[in-house]
Design a protein that fits this description.
The structure holds 2 protein chains of 2 kinds.
Chain A lengths: L4 E3 L2 E4 L5 E6 L6 E8 L3 E9 L2 E4 L8 E7 L2 E6 L8 E8 L12 E2 L3 E5 L1
Parallel strand pairs in A: 2-11
Antiparallel strand pairs in A: 1-3, 3-8, 4-5, 4-9, 5-6, 7-8, 9-10, 9-11
Chain B lengths: L2 E3 L4 E5 L4 E3 L2 E3 L5 E8 L6 E7 L6 E3 L2 E6 L4 E6 L8 E9 L6 E3 L3 E6 L1
Parallel strand pairs in B: 2-12
Antiparallel strand pairs in B: 1-4, 3-9, 5-6, 5-10, 7-8, 8-9, 10-11, 10-12
Chain lengths: ~120, ~120
């Protein structure tokens, strides 16, 4: 398996521009998570989906952030408009159904998307 | 509410020393999972171990060992005979037992191993 695939790996944009981050989870995994990592705040959970349905979006900082999961193999995290304080590494992760006890609740992370907003 | 505390922000050791990374957690769940992840300088997050709350047996994997004590709500990680390649940020994390439960991370401990 190719693992969790995120794109782009690096994004540099100007304040006010729209940013879209993409994630392809591991096939067969039914939970998908978006985390943000900064020096100041560490690893923050932004939103997560189970069976393509958003379960908890309480970590989404504000209305400028939105996430979708139109199908089991694709998710996007969009920031519109972007601001310099959104600069961070954004990680996507997926985990298998709980019935698979060996991997239950074990998140596999993508390589991350490093976002810089100027 | 769930919470994970890693009080050690940064630890520096010399190669071959043993080092223990502390993790204390809070949860009201009776069934839960505890995890350790490693983030090397390259930036990816690598899964190391998952422990079920019903299993308090210590676990050893090569130079790595984990000590889980429910009585003190701790899940500490020891690296024996540390090596330079162990230099990384280590995160302790907690989740409920359901697939729909979220994973909460501690703030991480940066380990630097000097030759």
């Amino acid at each position: 398996d190719a693992g969790v695939i995120q794109s782009p790996r690096h994004e540099v944009t100007e304040m006010g521009q729209e940013v879209t981050l993409r994630c392809k989870p591991i096939s067969g995994h039914n939970s998908l998570f978006w985390y943000r990592q900064t020096m100041m705040r560490g690893l923050e959970l932004l939103i997560y989906f189970n069976n393509n349905v958003p379960i908890d979006d309480s970590g989404m900082p504000e209305d400028r952030f939105s996430a979708k999961m139109p199908n089991a193999s694709f998710s996007t995290l969009k920031i519109q408009p972007s601001e310099p304080r959104d600069s961070a590494v954004y990680f996507c992760a997926s985990s298998p159904p709980s019935g698979l006890s060996v991997g239950a609740n074990v998140l596999t992370f993508g390589a991350g998307s490093r976002l810089t907003v100027l | 509410a769930q919470k994970v505390t890693q009080a050690q922000t940064e630890i520096s050791v010399v190669e071959k020393e043993d080092v223990t990374l502390d993790c204390v957690y809070e949860t009201r769940d009776t069934t839960y999972y505890l995890f350790w992840y490693k983030q090397p300088p390259s930036g990816e997050l690598v899964f190391l171990i998952r422990r079920n709350s019903f299993d308090e047996q210590n676990e050893i994997s090569g130079r790595y060992s984990w000590n889980f004590q429910k009585s003190t709500s701790s899940f500490n990680f020891t690296i024996t005979a540390s090596q330079v390649v162990d230099s990384a940020v280590y995160f302790c994390a907690l989740s409920g037992s359901y697939n729909t439960d979220k994973l909460i991370f501690g703030t991480g401990t940066r380990l630097q191993v000097f030759p």
